[in-house]
Write a structure and sequence with these properties.
disordered N terminus; 14% strand; alpha/beta; binds adenosine-5'-triphosphate; 12 helices; binds magnesium ion; 8-stranded mixed beta sheet; 278 residues; Rossmann fold; disordered C terminus
Length: 278
């Protein structure tokens, strides 16, 4: 936590730091993690997209939104791979399959981390990932990825579409996205509903190889994260360098049950890109 402490000491000053997660930052990632069963090749081959709409992503649009995990030439993608490996080790150990991403307050980089982490997980040939936008207040997954959302979670929840109609494969093997197009009223009531718990169960159980990555609003702005906690395995807290106060981080950690706390990742830190890889 020392690095986070340093970051906190900078107060609320906006960060002008590096463009992502550095190697050093990962020292602070994660104190607890989780598990998945060993999935067979057969199952992974069956993660078929016969029904799922395939949408090709635009490299420029991704870069503009800091989505770098698919670009092995980008130094930041290595950092997301490191985060992925730490997260997956812990998830395997604890038999966790659903990971939600939050932060104390807004703009810490949750959505950017969620997308890059899911992409990095999908790059492992024995895993698959589904990225779900449960930030029903400020849904951004779809626009960051640049995917059209004729049918989205909004339609699934209001009964005007079925699950296969709203899933999108962004032309990346073993990755599926469930985006939300427009903000929803009564978001915390929705997240605590039976509909949502059944949906998570369905997404999680369909493939044993599958890791469910869930983008959420900040934990201190409303009760949405708390409402979802009973339906998920674990929570990763994204803290932006210089943005959150010590008190806000402590309050956030206190709200997450210890047995569901994956750990903390420091984002937007003012550090040099990692230099010990060669
Ligand atoms: N490591 C980083 N360095 C610099 N800017 C970043 C970094 N990560 C994210 N950003 C930028 O910060 C802004 C907020 O990122 P993002 O939308 O992912 O945050 P968020 O926590 O999901 O916000 P919200 O609370 O609104 O959902 C975006 O403009 C994003 O490009
Ligand atoms: Mg967000």
């Amino acid at each position: 936590m020392e690095r986070i402490k340093q970051a906190l000491d900078k107060g609320k000053k906006p960060s002008t730091g590096s463009n992502g997660l550095s190697a050093q930052q990962h020292k602070y990632i994660l104190s607890n993690f989780a598990h998945t069963e060993n999935d067979t090749q057969h199952e992974l081959e069956n993660v078929s997209y016969t029904q799922t709409r395939i949408v090709k992503l635009q490299t420029e649009h991704l870069e503009k939104n800091r989505i770098v995990a698919c670009n092995k030439n980008d130094v930041m993608s290595m950092n997301f791979d490191l985060l992925r490996t730490l997260v997956l080790q812990k998830m395997e150990e604890k038999n966790w399959r659903t990971l939600a991403i939050t932060s104390p307050t807004a703009e810490a980089g949750k959505t950017v981390v969620a997308i890059n982490l899911a992409m990095s997980i999908a790059q492992q040939s024995d895993r698959s990932a589904i990225l779900v936008d449960f930030d029903l207040r400020r849904p951004k997954l779809g626009s960051y990825l640049g995917i059209p959302m004729e049918k989205s979670l909004n339609n699934l929840l209001d009964g005007t579409a079925l699950l296969p109609d709203v899933l999108i494969n962004p032309d990346i093997p073993r990755l599926v996205v469930l985006a939300t197009k427009t903000p929803m009223k009564k978001s915390s009531e929705t997240l605590s509903s039976r509909k949502i718990s059944d949906l998570i169960k369905d997404l999680r159980e369909r493939y044993k190889s599958r890791i469910v990555i869930i983008d959420l609003p900040p934990i201190l702005v409303a009760d949405d994260v708390i409402a979802l906690l009973p339906h998920i395995d674990c929570v990763l807290l994204v803290v932006a360098d210089g943005l959150s106060t010590k008190q806000e981080i402590e309050d956030s950690v206190r709200l997450i049950p210890a047995e569901q706390f994956m750990g903390t990742v420091l984002n937007k830190a003012e550090v040099e890109p990692m230099d010990y890889y060669y």
